[in-house]
Design goal:
13% helix; 226 residues
Length: 226
């Protein structure tokens, strides 16, 4: 049996994976050597630069901060502009961290290349799902309908939500109507079909979270697979 500290260290090592950030372009299909059509999502990876290196000594953990999507000064705060100017970097709209085991191997200004996906077969893709607005319980949680007869006054209503005299309140986490989508979602074990380093394109089999134009993160899968 694995002790708690060693289990935590194993999970921490699994989470320390360097990846790339790209913009979802859309879906298309390509054909393999047997002529079979493969549905793929095309992701455009722009320049990604290391903007900060964090270590256990300085920040309490090992990680690198990267920036992508160039932006004008007027779209950033003074704090953000100072962060980039301090290291003589260009301005970037999106900043994100990747946990790494060896932060000493990176320095500010280094570029993250698509070579980090070399010899990778499966990837995890994380992004913000498409927002679907305010939805009822039938659409959001797949609740069943009430009677559809003319006299019924409960066609798509959620029904009782209370818990009686005790505890006389609605239990936290009750599935009710509300905002649907627009959440951080990760799809695991997607097949990496092709990496086009010359054009900065990554082709992943199947769909990935989010609408066209939204940023997604691609990392080698952390899940064991056969």
């Amino acid at each position: 049996m694995i002790s708690a500290p060693s289990r935590m260290s194993m999970e921490r090592k699994m989470n320390m994976t360097l990846g790339v950030i790209g913009k979802k372009v859309g879906m298309t299909q390509i054909f393999d050597e047997n002529g079979l059509a493969i549905p793929v999502t095309v992701i455009k990876v722009d320049e990604t630069v290391v903007t900060q290196v964090k270590t256990v000594d300085t920040d309490g953990y090992n990680a690198i901060q990267v920036g992508t999507v160039a932006v004008k000064e007027k779209h950033l705060t003074k704090a953000q502009l100072g962060h980039f100017k301090k290291n003589s970097l260009s301005n970037y709209r999106h900043l994100q961290e990747f946990r790494v085991d060896n932060p000493a191997d990176f320095k500010v200004g280094d570029k993250i290349e698509l070579s980090v996906l070399d010899n990778v077969e499966k990837v995890d893709v994380t992004g913000k799902s498409i927002g679907k607005g305010f939805q009822g319980t039938v659409k959001r949680w797949n609740f069943g309908r009430g009677p559809m007869a003319h006299g019924s006054k409960n066609h798509r209503e959620p029904g009782s939500i209370g818990a009686g005299t005790t505890p006389s309140r609605v239990i936290k986490g009750k599935r009710m109507a509300g905002n649907m989508g627009n959440e951080r979602v990760t799809i695991t074990k997607l097949k990496l079909v092709k990496v086009d380093s010359n054009n900065g394109l990554v082709l992943v089999k199947g769909s990935v979270p989010g609408c066209e134009g939204r940023l997604v993160t691609i990392v080698p899968t952390r899940t064991k697979w056969n």
